[in-house]
């Protein structure tokens, strides 16, 4: 079996050798290059093309975000960000690196005698092996955020009349490539979006709270919070599923957190969230964004069969067309849309024109 070739970008020689040991002991992986800076990484990539890059986020010279932008623009290669801190500015850089094209962020393994050594080492190696299979494309990092699309009145009738009255709550699920997609969709919604948004983003558990803080900073038009059990739902608020529990909708219009087994190997699971919205029928809507695997597809199918309006991101704009493809295959998607059109469709769905317009 051909091993996955790995480049390590890490400024500390000690840590680099530590990662080298961890990665090379995994039978799936082989380190083919170790460099100390982003500049050195770019020079090496001109002649050496690894299957995956393990990227330290805090580097001398260019930081991890700048390196990610350059690599994705000049030598598109799957990148896993390895971060040692889940709380401070380093996390913000990591999240922005995800938005710039990095596929995942994992916690840097700790010393051999640490209780979490085996778990963190295993997570790093598994993530490198899985993400190496993602076909990434050349992209330029955008700071421009498009304004919501204004839908001409003559197009507004394309939404089925039976979908009215408009939904009261939105479920959204994303995985690999999700942070950038989520930001684009949420920033395309109107400031007066009249419903709560329940969000499941697959992410390393230690990074969830940092993700919530980061998302709140890049989506200024909406309030972003980490969901709590029995938290009442309010319009214009994004409720992010906490780590290691399932998030579900429950009456009377509130959050329910469930400590039940993983579904589709995920906890929180998008399928659990979307299935909980099924009893609302047309009173709920769902969006399934880019991601590896099938999580969310079965839940979206149940919602669709109950009359809910459901949207799957299309293949052309998905970083990984896994979860949306599974939903489409099940016939679970009312609409399959490019990323840049999803926000406008949601705005129309939740703010339908009056009969006189």
UniProtKB/TrEMBL annotation:
<dbReference type="GO" id="GO:0000156">
    <property type="term" value="F:phosphorelay response regulator activity"/>
</dbReference>
<dbReference type="InterPro" id="IPR001789">
    <property type="entry name" value="Sig_transdc_resp-reg_receiver"/>
</dbReference>
<feature type="active site">
    <location>
        <position position="202"/>
    </location>
</feature>
<feature type="active site">
    <location>
        <position position="295"/>
    </location>
</feature>
<dbReference type="InterPro" id="IPR000673">
    <property type="entry name" value="Sig_transdc_resp-reg_Me-estase"/>
</dbReference>
<dbReference type="InterPro" id="IPR035909">
    <property type="entry name" value="CheB_C"/>
</dbReference>
<dbReference type="GO" id="GO:0005737">
    <property type="term" value="C:cytoplasm"/>
</dbReference>
<feature type="modified residue" description="4-aspartylphosphate">
    <location>
        <position position="56"/>
    </location>
</feature>
<protein>
    <recommendedName>
        <fullName>protein-glutamate methylesterase</fullName>
        <ecNumber>3.1.1.61</ecNumber>
    </recommendedName>
</protein>
<dbReference type="Pfam" id="PF01339">
    <property type="entry name" value="CheB_methylest"/>
</dbReference>
<feature type="domain" description="CheB-type methylesterase">
    <location>
        <begin position="165"/>
        <end position="346"/>
    </location>
</feature>
<feature type="domain" description="Response regulatory">
    <location>
        <begin position="5"/>
        <end position="123"/>
    </location>
</feature>
<keyword id="KW-0145">Chemotaxis</keyword>
<keyword id="KW-0378">Hydrolase</keyword>
<dbReference type="GO" id="GO:0008984">
    <property type="term" value="F:protein-glutamate methylesterase activity"/>
</dbReference>
<dbReference type="InterPro" id="IPR008248">
    <property type="entry name" value="CheB-like"/>
</dbReference>
<keyword id="KW-0597">Phosphoprotein</keyword>
<dbReference type="InterPro" id="IPR011006">
    <property type="entry name" value="CheY-like_superfamily"/>
</dbReference>
<feature type="active site">
    <location>
        <position position="175"/>
    </location>
</feature>
<dbReference type="GO" id="GO:0006935">
    <property type="term" value="P:chemotaxis"/>
</dbReference>
<dbReference type="Pfam" id="PF00072">
    <property type="entry name" value="Response_reg"/>
</dbReference>
<keyword id="KW-0963">Cytoplasm</keyword>
